[in-house]
Amino acid sequence: xxxxxxxxxxxxxxxxxxxxxxxxxxxxxxxxxxxxxxxxxxxxxxxxxxxxxxxxxxxxxxxxxxxxxxxxxxxxxxxxxxxxxxxxxxxxxxxxxxxxxxxxxxxxxxxxxxxxxxxxxxxxxxxxxxxxxxxxxxxxxxxxxxxxxxxxxxxxxxxxxxxxxxxxxxxxxxxxxxxxxxxxxxxxxxxxxxxxxxxxxxxxxxxxxxxxxxxxxxxxxxxxxxxxxxxxxxxxxxxxxxxxxxxxxxxxxxxxxxxxxxxxxxxxxxxxxxxxxxx
Length: 279
Hints:
Elements: H1 2-7, H2 23-35, H3 46-54, H4 63-96, H5 112-141, E1 149-156, E2 159-165, E3 171-175, E4 185-189, E5 193-200, E6 205-209, E7 214-218, E8 224-229, E9 234-239, E10 252-258, H6 260-278
Parallel strand pairs: 1-5, 4-10
Antiparallel strand pairs: 1-2, 2-3, 5-8, 6-7, 9-10
Helix pairs in contact: 4-5
């Protein structure tokens, strides 16, 4: 009898026994989730930040640069729309279908209309961006029939040389650094088509003018031709962005855009100086 009485009492096996979850526990968890910071809203703060950073991008000072700038802005707007759409749907789904109880929600295994929609729309967007890119590229790389000024740009370790020629092909001034720390200046008339013929005499260089939103590689044994039409008077720095050796940092130059009258005055003076030096 004594053994039966002892076996009728429950035996405590652990110091912290598990207990079943109640409705009060579920309510407390829901309350805790509602009081937590809404982290899913933080990506929305990136939108104004991206727009502010986009405003820091340089504006083009050439006709070709404005085409590139327009394409860049078009890509930025398309990316912002996609970001807002995807983020908005994601946040809506998280809020709309968040867990409210312990019941298993209805299981959906597929939706042909939705799947076709999010396959066709991105494909259309890619095609539109591709067509816009090709059209802009064709405008930027198009060559004029009769450029007003032609400049042969020669890159070498570690300087630039600019050789001018007129519309009829007559040789013009040659611009070279006159001292070790002298920065060569590429002078061009405003509002006129300038034909550049870019080449390198040793290693690969790159001709880059940030305000023109344009860069072209200078490859040994190959001449690359392109046109630029500067429409804003001013001085704009340029440089080589391809590491070309120990003194790569000296591969800098300036582009000075001036009225046609000033350009003609400089052009004539440089030709006279070269003729005097040759005599």
